[in-house]
Structure formats: C-alpha cells, structure tokens
Design a protein that fits this description.
mainly alpha, 6 helices, 78% helix, globular
C-alpha cells in the first residue's frame, strides 16, 4: 500500500462525517500519509530512522542549501503538532476546520516533495540525512 492512500481516507472522512472523532482521525491520517511517504524514500536507500518522528523532521530541516527541503521539514513538524492535538488533546475541541487544515497541509507537502524528487533533489535529501544521522550518532 502506498502511504498516500491515507489521504483518500481523509478525504472521505471530511466529506461524509460530521463528528469530532472522525475529524481527529482524518488529521492523524493526513500526518501519517506524509510521514510514511517520506520515510519510504529513506528506507529505499537503507537509511533507518527509527521510531522517533523528530528524526525524520530534522533530516529534512538539516538540508542546508535547499530551503524547499527545509520547508517540507517545517511543514511536516506543523502537521505532526496537528496530529498530536488530534490524538492526545481530547479535552480541547477539534473542528472540521482543524482537520481540513491538516489535510490541505498534507497535500501541500506531497506536491512539494514530488516536485523536489522530479527536480533531482533525492540525492541531496539522502546525503544530508546520512550526514545528520552521523552527527547525531557521534553526539549521543
């Protein structure tokens, strides 16, 4: 299954459901669609990121010289915070607008990420991730 399929589920939830639980689920699916889509790229190059989501975010943000890649890292961090609110902050109201914002941001990340891959940025994304992980290992 391609992780982007999660966005299809999100679209259905947003279109057909009118309950906060479904909106929360759609925000979570939006995040995981992008997280797993990007993580697959690293995995295809034998880069193991582990379970800490922040590592994936930081691998992207650490791509110096490529502000577009860094922007994707910041966007996915924002989407992560949307997911955290949706999944764990149950005492706070979560609206359809919140879920739609997460869905729209996931689509934006997807478009930007695909455009970068089409413009041969994959090599730089991979090199920078390896550099970041090497530094991270050496400081721990």
């Amino acid at each position: 299954m391609r992780p982007i399929t999660f966005l299809n589920i999100t679209a259905k939830l947003l279109k057909t459901q009118k309950h906060q639980a479904n909106w929360r689920s759609s925000a979570s699916r939006s995040y995981y669609a992008m997280y797993h889509e990007i993580k697959q790229l690293y995995k295809s190059e034998s880069i193991e990121l582990g379970k800490d989501h922040g590592v994936l975010h930081q691998c992207l943000i650490s791509c110096t010289g490529f502000p577009e890649i860094q922007g994707i890292g910041k966007h996915i961090q924002t989407l992560y915070l949307c997911r955290i609110k949706a999944d764990y902050e149950l005492s706070e109201e979560y609206t359809r607008k919140d879920a739609e914002m997460a869905y729209d941001l996931a689509h934006k990340i997807d478009r930007l990420f695909l455009a970068l891959l089409e413009n041969n940025a994959k090599k730089h994304i991979i090199e920078e991730a390896r550099n970041f992980l090497k530094i991270k290992r050496n400081t721990n």
